[in-house]
Amino acid sequence: MTTAEIAIGVAIGLASGILSGLFGVGGGIVMTPGIQVLLGAPAIVALATPLPAILPTALAGALTYHRRGEVDLQAAAWLTPPGLVGAAVGAWATEWIDTTWLLLVTALLIGYQAIALVTRADRPGEGRERSTSPAALASIGAVAGFVSGLLGIGGGIVIVPLLAGRLGMPLKRALGTSLLAIVALVIPGTIVHAVLGHIDVGIFLAIVVGAVPGARIGAGIALGTGEGTLRMLVGGFLLVVAIAYAAEQVSSLLGSGPS
Fold it and tell me: Distance between CA 134 and CA 180 in Å, rounded?
């Protein structure tokens, strides 16, 4: 990598780390398009390389939330085992699925979460926690793990809205719990993609330099922000990202069509 590419990688890492800490996601939703568009990496490399970078990033954010008592350790324990299985299956599935379509699916998932968070921002009953069954947590973990391995992201775009919305967990606790689960969920996908030769070590190292401190910064900002404001912030930002991300993939699909 050139000096300019290393600087771009660090900048991508810093932005994705702040996003990770703020919104309880792994940061892959910024890392993946950044690696593909700004560093010119092939789509499968852009999908796979964020996974090993997400592990230390999510851990840094989770520790920040844990110090403030905003991590549900029991919920994370139920999310993780089925998530590990799902992540391995999702990573293997990338061998047979068009990666451009995977990236488009990623954009649609981001957009779905963004709209859900914005529309729930002002509901007076939001954040009132309901009883959580192990089966519900396990199913969320399995889906999040599959999405993580398949799309090269941490799985937080599945975990956060389901914990905070469907299960009624307070948003900040959902963010911290999501980050802790993500630490484990990216391990199977990382191993599988490494075996398949999809991970660019140079890009990974550059991203981690910026992502770890970024996660601590993002978590600190989230912990000091009101829940309604935080929902509007994450929803609005992710909606912009989703639109830009989807436009890039649609353009790629149209460009590859018959002339």
Answer: 17
Query: In the predicted model, what is the mean pLDDT of residues 28-47?
Result: 88
Q: From CA 221, how far away is CA 71, in angstroms rounded?
A: 16
User: What is the domain range of residue 104?
Assistant: 3-255
3: its two tokens: 């000096």
Give yes or no for a contact between 150 and 194, defined as CB atoms under 8 angstroms apart: no
Look up residue 52 and give its amino acid: P
The number of folded domains in the chain is: 1
pLDDT tens for each residue of 71-87: 999 999 999 999 999 88
DSSP-assigned letters across all residues of the chain: --HHHHHHHHHHHHHHHHHHHHHTS-SHHHHHHHHHHTS---HHHHHHTHHHHHHHHHHHHHHHHHHTT---HHHHHHHHHHHHHHHHHHHHHTTTS-HHHHHHHHHHHHHHHHHHHHHTTT-TTTT-PPP--HHHHHHHHHHHHHHHHHHTS-SHHHHHHIIIIIS---HHHHHHHHHHHHHHHHHHHHHHHHHTT---HHHHHHHHHHHHHHHHHHHHHHHTS-HHHHHHHHHHHHHHHHHHHHHHHHHHHHHTS--
The CA-CA-CA angle for residues 53, 222, 109, to 5°, reads 60
Question: Tokens 């600190």 label which residue?
Answer: 220
**CB of 186 within 8 A of CB of 128?**
no
pTM over 0.85: no
Residue type, 87: A
With cut-offs at 50, 70 and 90, classify the pLDDT of residue 176: very high
